[in-house]
């Protein structure tokens, strides 16, 4: 992409309505525009990151054996009456009447709809285990939408649902989700810590929330500092292996880590030596849940078991806050100048700054780098505007591409361009060819 042809409406002023840094930076970098309270348009740069995050989520779900599909945003109230949640859900549910006077709603989640699909098509234990998921817009009429995409009313969520014959099999599905979530967040450059959470109105003893530590987080969290040393890394886990997935769960959840809802000061003191006790704030970027037969019993989702007996299936639901993740990543990775995207989610792989637009040698070198990056399957953003170098650097720093190539007549006389890391600010001079090799090596490891 060439900046002169792109749509990147960066703001010079710091928007006064934004209270936290991620919201400010997303507005300033021209990533989103508020359409109404808690509802945003995703401008091209924001949309690109959203798609990158979605892609990682898809890849990791599919790797875990979970099956993608797509359910509608608008649902019929009838199914929610069957589960009993139509009345329970309260004001957060956006209720709609169609022209025939039928009660509809904009889905805040999809347990009812997926259970209806399941009961219509699956009859036998032989079709289990089954985990279906989608990435779809949700609407929750939050009383206080705030912090930009962090607490929106309309937001993008990955929600997955497992169907299993018994509790044991459903807990394996739970563990599979935990493993796939750890992998997903790490690929996004994030540390998200699984913390024991509260079953809430859905109930259920097995639930963990994934929290990214950040001062602006809405949850208060309590944990053993050892937990922040855990890394999933690139280990290969066999998702079909019950003991392997169970071992990951134990490794990542045996230490004390709880949100304020489940925190118990006495247990905290008993289990964690004082020097390792931490209290902090966190952003919830996902949650996994085993809730047994709650929906399958209410809605008659049963299968015939090996013994010929019919019984309700054991279910769980598992969510990732796809759109919230943009805010969480920026909260975790920025500086005074702007965003610092982790390589895994960056909207463009590398920026190219032409210090002297119109200079024949500089223009030609930039074109060469641009085409060479494309040929390597990478997406460059070439700042080909007729602007001062300072303004170009400021834009690149604000939008946070992890790597920048700077090209000017003086360097070219020596046969070099400058490659700069957004994170460290360190630069090195390389020949254009060597710079291309370096960038492709960096992304080959992501
Ligand atoms: N209003 C929202 N805006 C953006 N993302 C959200 C919102 N509500 C939930 N999410 C994301 O969707 C994920 C799964 O949804 P879940 O039903 O667990 O949300 P929740 O526990 O009600 O969230 P919260 O406690 O933050 O209101 C959450 O972990 C969060 O990352
Ligand atoms: Mg939750």
Model description:
The longest helix is centred in the middle third of the chain and has 21 residues, at 167-187. The radius of gyration is 24 Å and the shape is globular. It has helices at 21-28, 44-63, 77-83, 85-88, 111-121, 167-187, 242-253, 265-271, 294-299, 322-332, 360-375, 389-399, 409-414, 432-444, and strands at residues 32-36, 39-42, 67-68, 74-76, 94-97, 103-106, 130-139, 154-164, 192-196, 206-213, 219-224, 257-259, 277-292, 302-304, 310-312, 314-321, 334-335, 338-339, 350-354, 380-383, 403-407, 417-421, 427-430. With 446 residues, it is α+β, with helices and mostly antiparallel strands. α1 crosses α10, α2 (44-63) packs across α10 (322-332) and α6 (167-187) packs across α7 (242-253). It is built from 14 helices and 23 strands. The model has no long low-confidence stretch (mean pLDDT 96). It folds into two domains: 3-338, BirA Bifunctional Protein, domain 2, CATH 3.30.930.10; 348-444, Anticodon-binding domain (Rossmann fold), CATH 3.40.50. Residues 209, 284, 287 line the site of magnesium ion.
What is the secondary structure topology, with strand pairs?
Layout: H1 21-28, E1 32-36, E2 39-42, H2 44-63, E3 67-68, E4 74-76, H3 77-83, H4 85-88, E5 94-97, E6 103-106, H5 111-121, E7 130-139, E8 154-164, H6 167-187, E9 192-196, E10 206-213, E11 219-224, H7 242-253, E12 257-259, H8 265-271, E13 277-292, H9 294-299, E14 302-304, E15 310-312, E16 314-321, H10 322-332, E17 334-335, E18 338-339, E19 350-354, H11 360-375, E20 380-383, H12 389-399, E21 403-407, H13 409-414, E22 417-421, E23 427-430, H14 432-444
Parallel strand pairs: 3-7, 19-20, 19-21
Antiparallel strand pairs: 1-2, 4-6, 5-6, 7-8, 8-16, 9-10, 10-13, 11-12, 11-13, 13-16, 14-15, 17-18, 21-22, 22-23
Helix pairs in contact: 1-10, 2-6, 2-10, 6-7, 11-14
The structure holds adenosine-5'-triphosphate and magnesium ion.
């Amino acid at each position: 992409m060439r900046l002169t042809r792109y749509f990147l409406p960066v703001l010079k002023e710091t928007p006064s309505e934004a209270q936290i840094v991620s919201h400010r930076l997303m507005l300033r970098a021209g990533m989103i525009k508020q359409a109404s309270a808690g509802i945003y348009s995703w401008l091209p740069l924001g949309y690109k990151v959203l798609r990158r995050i979605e892609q990682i989520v898809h890849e990791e779900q599919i790797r875990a054996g979970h099956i993608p599909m797509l359910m509608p945003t608008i649902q019929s109230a009838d199914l929610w009456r069957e589960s009993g949640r139509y009345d329970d859900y309260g004001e957060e549910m956006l209720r709609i009447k169609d022209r025939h006077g039928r009660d509809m709603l904009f889905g805040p989640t999809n347990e009812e709809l997926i259970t209806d699909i399941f009961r219509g098509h699956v009859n036998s234990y032989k079709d289990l285990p089954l985990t279906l998921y989608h990435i779809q817009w949700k609407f929750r009429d939050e009383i206080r939408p705030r912090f930009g995409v962090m607490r929106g009313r309309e937001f993008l969520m990955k929600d997955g649902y497992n169907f299993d014959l018994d509790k044991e099999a459903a807990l394996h599905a739970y563990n599979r989700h935990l493993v796939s979530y750890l992998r997903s967040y790490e690929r996004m450059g994030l540390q998200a810590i699984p913390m024991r959470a509260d079953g809430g109105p859905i109930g259920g003893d097995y639930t963990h929330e994934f929290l990214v530590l950040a001062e602006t987080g809405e949850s208060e969290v309590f944990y053993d500092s050892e937990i922040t040393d855990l890394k999933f890394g690139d280990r290969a886990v066999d998702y079909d292996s019950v003991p392997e997935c169970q071992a990951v769960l134990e490794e990542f959840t045996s230490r004390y880590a709880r949100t304020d809802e489940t925190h118990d000061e006495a247990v905290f003191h008993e289990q964690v030596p004082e020097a390792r006790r931490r209290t902090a704030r966190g952003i919830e970027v996902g949650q996994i849940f085993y809730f047994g037969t709650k929906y399958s019993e209410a809605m008659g989702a049963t299968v015939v078991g090996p013994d010929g007996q019919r019984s309700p299936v054991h279910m769980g639901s598992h969510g990732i806050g796809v759109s919230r993740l943009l805010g969480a990543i920026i909260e975790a990775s920025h500086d005074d100048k702007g965003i610092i995207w982790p390589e895994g989610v960056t909207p463009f792989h590398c920026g190219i700054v032409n210090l002297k637009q119109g200079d024949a040698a500089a223009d030609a070198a930039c074109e060469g780098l641009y085409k060479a990056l494309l040929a390597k399957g990478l997406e460059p953003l070439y700042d080909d505007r007729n602007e001062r170098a300072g303004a170009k650097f400021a834009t690149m720093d604000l939008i946070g591409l992890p790597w920048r190539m700077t090209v000017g007549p003086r360097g070219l006389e020596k046969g070099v361009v400058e490659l700069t890391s957004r994170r460290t600010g360190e630069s090195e001079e390389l020949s254009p060819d060597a710079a291309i090799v370096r960038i492709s090596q960096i992304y080959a490891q992501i």
